Amino acid sequence: MRFFEKGGQKMPTLGYGTFKLSGEACENGVQVAIETGYRHIDTARMYGNEKEVGKGIKNSGIERKELFVTSKIPPDNLSPEQIRQETENSLRALDMDYVNLMLIHWPNFDIPLEKSLETFFQLKEEGKINAVGVSNFTIELTRKAAKVGEIFTNQVEYHPLLDQQKLLDATRELDILLTAYSPIARGEVNEQVTIKQIAEKYNKLPTQVTLRWLIQQDKVAAIPKAAKENHIKSNFDIFDFELTDEEMQQMDAVRNDHRLVDPTWAPNWD
């Protein structure tokens, strides 16, 4: 496993995403993921599944200190009072005393970013969260956030079909981790000839090669979501091979501007 370390926090760069997972499927998925070897679990208030995530963790029998758990505050609830309430709601649902990382899920331009982040950092001082991060932030917003305090990560859409090099250059410059959601482009990497050819060489799946490409990059993490047990295990089975520099460049060359996540409330991407 590879790790990103900052401010005393150590996060596995491969995590288990839970977006769109609910009920028993979410609970079982988290448990299977932990039993498979994942130690980084990602959820959010907007997912409505923190309770199930907490149950899955409990059912796994693993000690809390062995896990890195991330959650996120919705963009509509970023006033200082709302952030505090949502954090308490999150901890209650997860049945935990703290989360390792709390993110602003999406930017809200109606609420001053500084005020929101100051509350996050207060909660960090109080021991409710161990690290502060953002999600779906542009380069400009990421730099603005970094001026307020130590930002651990910016979680954004990133996969071979979406070029995020400019944002990645900026986060590296700021010593901020870029965490990739939708890392396998909702399965579309399976149709890419270049990725398929590399996968055949290693007797791996295109999804596995893609995840390997992501975590092999400096200051990049990935949180693939999977519901089926075989997919959960397959996504984790990427530590027995390493892509060459040439193959990494070939993967880089696949990129275009195929953005999959662009809701009406999204910022104007750089």
Any chance you could write out the topology, listing elements then pairs?
Layout: E1 3-6, E2 9-12, E3 16-17, H1 23-36, E4 40-42, H2 50-60, E5 68-73, H3 80-94, E6 101-104, H4 113-125, E7 132-135, H5 139-146, E8 151-157, H6 165-173, E9 177-181, H7 193-202, H8 206-215, E10 220-222, H9 229-236, H10 245-252
Parallel strand pairs: 3-4, 4-5, 5-6, 6-7, 7-8, 8-9, 9-10
Antiparallel strand pairs: 1-2
Helix pairs in contact: 1-2, 1-9, 2-3, 7-8
3D structure, described in words:
The protein has 270 residues and is an alpha/beta fold. It has a single domain, classed as NADP-dependent oxidoreductase domain (TIM Barrel), CATH 3.20.20. It is 39% helix and 16% strand. It is built from ten helices and ten strands. Strands 3-4-5-6-7-8-9-10 form an eight-stranded parallel β-sheet. Helix 3 links the parallel strand 5 and strand 6. Helix 1 runs parallel beside helix 9. It starts with a strand and ends in an 18-residue tail after the last helix.
- Could you tell me the CATH topology label: TIM Barrel
What oligomeric state do these chains adopt?
Answer: single chain
CATH superfamily: NADP-dependent oxidoreductase domain
Order of helices and strands: EEEHEHEHEHEHEHEHHEHH
